[in-house]
Amino acid sequence: MPSLDTLSRREALAAAGLLCVGGSGGFLLRDEFDDRFGDDSNLPADVAPTDWPHPARDAAHTRHAPPESAPDARETGDGLDRAWSFERSPHGPERTRPVVANGTVFVAESRDAGPSALRAVDRTGGDERWAVRMDDASGAVVAVGDRVLHLHDAVEGTVLDARAAADGSLLWRRDEPGDSGLVGLPVVAGSRAYVGGSQGRTAVLGAHGLGGGRAAWRRSTDGSFLGPPAVDRRASTVVLQTLRGLAAFDTTDGERRWRDTFEQTPDDRANPNPYGWPLLADGRAFVATYEGLLRAYDFASGEVDWERRLDASGRYAHVFEPGAYADGVLFTVERFYDARPDVLHAVDAESGADRWTVAAADAGEGSLSNPTVCDGRVYLTLTVDGDDHELLRLDAGDGSVVDRTALSSFPYRAPIVAGGRVLVSTGDGFDVFR
Q1: What CATH number is given to the structural domain containing 75?
Q2: For the chain, which has fewer Cβ within 10 Å, the N-terminal or C-terminal residue?
């Protein structure tokens, strides 16, 4: 049997046990489970506690790092010390989502013109360890154990790659379902990678073994998929966010457990589609929509525990975005589509009520990134007019500002806290603090 590296798209799909039917513009999918493939080599995902293997840290998107990941320096009120900076190409920084594993920062750089690149950079000093140039548009990556998973758009369609973390060499490649141009994010839990995609107006979710990428199961549901899936391994549940809805599946065999649809309100300007990524924690799935809805589901049953809705009146909408979760508190940013500053809410996960709020105006006019929580501190960036952008550190108990640190350029992503370092992706590259 020829290597999967050299197989055509159709041959690779056939080898993976998928149904591929030729047609105009793509192929047809059916729900499928094949016991021959199982967990591929039953390869576990080796993740150290201080790693940041996913863009939102874990498969559940909690953005909650353990205390041992906190910066090395003592809090003095004067901000964090800069450890190093890494300059990169200015093309497409808004599409860059770095991850950290085994002392290395991995990032896929997408460019509108010219080759893209997958890079590995030393976390401590910023030296580049390796780089792989690509002709296709690079998407987000996940780094677990000795490999880096990369779902990206290629000439022949959307593909899932696994590369060696040590040198970037290709370990295996699998075709993924999806419309041309789709770039998504794999999510790893246990010995599987879960990947969402779209085929027309149908959302597709697949589970792949980490050893060789072969499909254990694949399922479909109504509506194009929006954002990466979220996985709670202990509850054997994977949640997929779709256009106007949410669906939960069993991680073992892909059986659908429940599905819910977001109904549109009478306000014609309201948009019931999901906003941001789903977040799973303590038996709940937290989701938000463009019409200002924030909802908590019991993800075992699909029942709604609570919901709250922002006032949709007025000329401009504002929305919630689930950001981080720690110790029974959901940290979510209320975003405005006008000149009003963003607001960070610390929401009680049991009741949905605010414990405290902090407006960007309280720290300086501007917009806030998603938060990251570590060791009783909330890390987030403040973006303002001009060049005075900052990294803020707040007390998770009451929202008071602990310190603030100047950034070199416009921040594009929420802070990453891993291995005693805080990494902020900016328009110039990375700012790394200790």
Answers
A1: 2.140.10.10
A2: N
